[in-house]
Amino acid sequence: MTRPSRQQERITQITAMLDVSPALRLRDLAAQMGVTEMTLRRDAAQAGGRFACRGGYLVASRTTEYYDFDAQMTRAIEAKRAAAQIAQDLVPDQAVVFLDAGTTLPHLARLLAQGGVRRIITHCFTTAEVLQGRANVPVEFLGGEIKLTTRSCHAENPQERLADLGIDVAFLSAGGIDAAGVISCSYPYEAALKQAAIASSAQSYVVLDDSKLGTRKPVPFATLDAVDGVVSETGLWSGAQMRNRLTQLSPREM
């Protein structure tokens, strides 16, 4: 039997890794496999559609819904990192922190993993993967029904689940904030947990990049009055400040 080429072996290995991870960073994977990033880009071109190179990441070619999430992981990365750094400054020492699902908050998880907080609570698989084996703080994962569209778990009773966890600060993702100050997301199942996190935490902030301002997703879950502020790559904004910004934007439906 003909032995598979090294490229075929790498393609098989990468495909297996992407079965359990939404994306693989080229730089890290190249170091792990002992090859160059260009070699991995060539592998992606020869993978027969099993995975593709998007920005600095390899992502699996799965269903459209799943792929949309993976594509968002590689979009506006610098803006998301900048927003995460600003959000980190809002976390008190020894706080219990809730991290929502989404593609911005895993960047905050990476920063918080270095220590200084008492506990991190999440229901997001991507955030859990970031924290696995790297966190110097306890991590609690909230179970429930798996939702591949957002790589997260959702229980039927989020308010009861979060009520006794002593959350000091909750960071929430959002698909958009419109000119009326309505904060929205893409799927109905997301709303209940987001609302429970706001109600169960001492402080709550929405974290997103500026491209989502002036947009509205199908499911509203809160208004600017319900949270303590909005964090983007351009800074921390109070509800009043964000309303002023939004009035200067043209409304868009996404």
Walk me through the structure.
The protein is an alpha/beta fold and 254 residues long. 37% of the residues lie in helices and 23% in strands. The protein has helices at residues 6-18, 26-33, 37-45, 64-73, 77-88, 105-112, 125-131, 158-163, 188-200, 239-247, and strands at residues 23-25, 51-54, 57-60, 96-99, 119-122, 139-141, 145-147, 152-154, 169-172, 176-177, 182-185, 203-207, 215-216, 219-223, 229-232, 235-237, 252-253. The radius of gyration is 19 Å and the shape is globular. Mean pLDDT is 88; it is low at 63-70.
Would you summarize the structure shown here?
This protein is an alpha/beta fold and 254 residues long. The chain is 37% helix and 23% strand. Helix 2 packs across helix 3, helix 5 crosses helix 6 and helix 6 runs parallel beside helix 7.
Average of pLDDT: 88
Radius of gyration: 19 Å
The helix-and-strand class reads alpha/beta
Could you tell me the strand content as a percent range?
A: 15-25%
Please count the helical segments: 10
Describe the SSE topology.
Blueprint: H1 6-18, E1 23-25, H2 26-33, H3 37-45, E2 51-54, E3 57-60, H4 64-73, H5 77-88, E4 96-99, H6 105-112, E5 119-122, H7 125-131, E6 139-141, E7 145-147, E8 152-154, H8 158-163, E9 169-172, E10 176-177, E11 182-185, H9 188-200, E12 203-207, E13 215-216, E14 219-223, E15 229-232, E16 235-237, H10 239-247, E17 252-253
Parallel strand pairs: 4-5, 4-9, 5-6, 9-12, 12-15, 13-17
Antiparallel strand pairs: 1-3, 2-3, 7-8, 10-11, 11-14, 15-16
Helix pairs in contact: 2-3, 5-6, 6-7
